[in-house]
């Protein structure tokens, strides 16, 4: 399944006119991804990614985009590492590869924080606490 998702990732393209984009990389493996999101109110109406990475990174990013499409911002913020890892049976992944697997979750959450911080009611303190607990 990892090989299939990495060779044919879902939602792999650069989105035109996203509401928010975020980029991050994993220098240990060379993974580098950008995630684009569109919102309809507080719902993630569309999500895509582009970049390059190892098979684990690409597969996890592909699966994550499918998990969050159509979810509310609060549901997406509530996703945890085992939600992503479990979809591919990677719950017992070696520590050296965990950053590859979770780069997409980090990028998603930081993109969501950007979106929330831009909202008039955005609370920077809450967002900082959330970001600090990513890993």
TrEMBL record:
SUPFAM superfamilies in UniProt: SufE/NifU (SSF82649)
Gene Ontology MF terms in the entry: iron ion binding; iron-sulfur cluster binding
GO biological process terms held by the UniProt record: iron-sulfur cluster assembly
InterPro entries referenced in this protein's UniProt entry, alphabetically: NIF_FeS_clus_asmbl_NifU_N
Highest taxon of the lineage: Archaea
Domain NIF system FeS cluster assembly NifU N-terminal residues, every copy: 2-116
Protein name: Fe-S cluster formation protein
